[in-house]
Amino acid sequence: MNSAPVERLFTDRALAFLYLATAICTIYDHLTTLDLEVELVWLRKRPRRTAVQLLFFLNRYVGDGMQLTDYLLVFVRHIVTHTNRVWRRRFIAVILGCLNAVVLSSMQAITIYRISGMYNNDRRVTVLLFLALILELAGIAVVQTLASRLRVPIPNPAPGVFPCAGSSSPHWIYTVWIPIFFFELLVLCISLYCAIHHYRSVGANRKLPWLSLSQWHNPECLTYILLRDSITFPFIYLVICITNIFVSVHLPYFAGQMAICVASFSPCIVGSRLVLNLRETYYQPFFYECNVGTSLEEEEVGMDRFTNSLDLNNIPNIPMNNLVPS
């Protein structure tokens, strides 16, 4: 008995359940941080809406929509209507490609704002990063446009199994990850330079109590959060890019589809976390601001994760970014 059809169906179902899992994780992350989102992003009094709020909205809510769309188009199609039903894949691919581009670019724009703040809003750094983002998006658009004009059959269909789509992408579609890789590499290098220079400056100023090394290594310290996320998240996406290139070149078709599923899921989490992690450390929660008459002991109960161990009122007017040469 030929086991190829069974293996193909098993892989097909595994891909569908992976899309379901990423959709559930995205919605779960949104629901569990919804209180922080409302308090730290939308209820803060500002004279006008900021660009970061718009980027946060695009990243989080378009990301939710993209994950739900993937779930409906992949899981429902593969499991409920079975794999022998062919849908309009070309039109759907264009829609999903646009949603992916919006979510990815909004995450990267949030990262640019973060790094620009670390460099005291140095215009040269900001222009460099936004120019790199534009070039990255242009490279992605060129690869996707050229790939959409070619109709390549899905390789090695198993006997008796009908694929959901009549065509796939050309083998060189993995080059779409190259512009993303170089952008994330640039972001990582700039963040590492800032971190190294900052920690050297901290070591040279140990006599200042507000610059003690123990404070900067505290996970609740504002500077720690800035540097940690600005280094960790670009590194994670670099690994994702390298993994997708390797899988697309060396592994079968469905393995590449699984890698793309994970890659499209990651910006939905990273973008919102870049904003929430920073603001959760910087701001006090709304109910803490209202409890003016409570004692210090009562305020400290259940508030440990919101309090910043570094008292911002005791810091001279010398921001961390000024330690980086202009």
UniProtKB/TrEMBL annotation:
Keywords of this entry: Membrane, Transmembrane, Transmembrane helix
Record has Acyltransferase as a keyword: no
Transmembrane segments: 91-113, 125-147, 172-196, 231-251, 257-276
Domain DUF6533 span(s) in chain numbering: 18-63
InterPro entries: DUF6533
Pfam families named in the record: DUF6533
Protein name (database record): DUF6533 domain-containing protein
